[in-house]
Predict the 3D structure of the following.
Amino acid sequence: MGKTVRWGVVATGGIAAKFAEELRAVDGAEVVAVASRTEASARAFADRLGIPRAYGEWSALVADPDVDVVYVATPHHAHRKAAGLALEAGKAVLCEKALTLNAGEAEELVALARDRGLFLMEAMWMYCNPLVLRLAELVRDGAIGEVRTVQADFGLAGPFAPDHRLRDPAVGGGALLDLGVYPVSFAQLLLGEPDTVQAHALLSPEGVDLNTGILLGWSSGASALLSCSVVAATPMTASVTGSAGRIDLPHGFFFPDRFTLRRDGREPEEFVLDGDADRQSLRPEAEEVMRCLRAGLTESPLVPLDGSLAVMRTLDAIRDRVGVRYPQERATRA
Ligand SMILES: NC(=O)c1ccc[n+]([C@@H]2O[C@H](COP(=O)([O-])OP(=O)(O)OC[C@H]3O[C@@H](n4cnc5c(N)ncnc54)[C@H](OP(=O)(O)O)[C@@H]3O)[C@@H](O)[C@H]2O)c1
């Protein structure tokens, strides 16, 4: 085990609690502080999870000399601000997906981290899953020939109440940034940034995307057919088909514990996750951050910032096609 890495958590919602709980099981990790917009919420979270320090404002947490790395778990619209604050205070940052509201904000954040020589990573835990890494390696090594098409979807039936953050355009609500980011990141892991982007969506009266179909194209002739939804429970599967075979990921494709490789003319091969179920959780992501920090890296080779920027550009293009613009963007671009 290397040097202890001391985490500070910003926000006290669902994923903040899950991540803080999982950190307790990671060797060499310690959650030393939590910050919330309110003192009471920070205190309740700290008491519940046995965290020593609770702050009622983000600036106090980022100024804490005992915090090595800040985990940002706010809604999307606040990622830029919270992560920026932490970087300006000289902290390393793991920021929830999607990295920011749009590509412009992501570029600012990445430039800030690179200028200061500080670690920044998008919490795209799918990229740290050992089986996703294995799949990408098989594809790179030509196990299915040249990739022709990727299919992936992530849809939840809800229903999400009108006041839920997923329905609120002001916080970057909608299916795309929360759920669509997984199929898009999956396709781009295998094919890189697309050359063409088409999309169709059902929008809510508030103007967020509820049900979105996406068609990405590459000049090689490859395509990806993706979807995300907060009004339909889709299979949540993925397939990658190449000129010489196919790989199928079952339900929960973004945290797989198995997949099937079908090489043309051969028996299907089953790949199953070794070891405990923790490998399927958020733990490999936390361990990757800690490995990078101990090695003095400012970027993770598993979740490179250029990849996150490319995903943000695709998400912007999709929103452009379907007519979703967050209120912050209307104010600045009008
Ligand atoms: N990796 C994953 O598996 C995963 C899963 C779910 C979500 N996520 C991502 O994590 C982020 C948060 O999702 P969540 O499901 O945890 O949401 P959530 O349960 O609604 O929690 C978000 C927290 O952010 C703070 N917050 C709420 N409104 C805010 C505002 N207007 N400005 C600043 N902070 C605000 C609140 O904490 P305080 O009251 O303490 O300030 C709230 O508890 C999103 O980016 C989402 O895409 C990732």
Notes: DSSP finds ten helices and 14 strands in the chain. The mean pLDDT is 96.
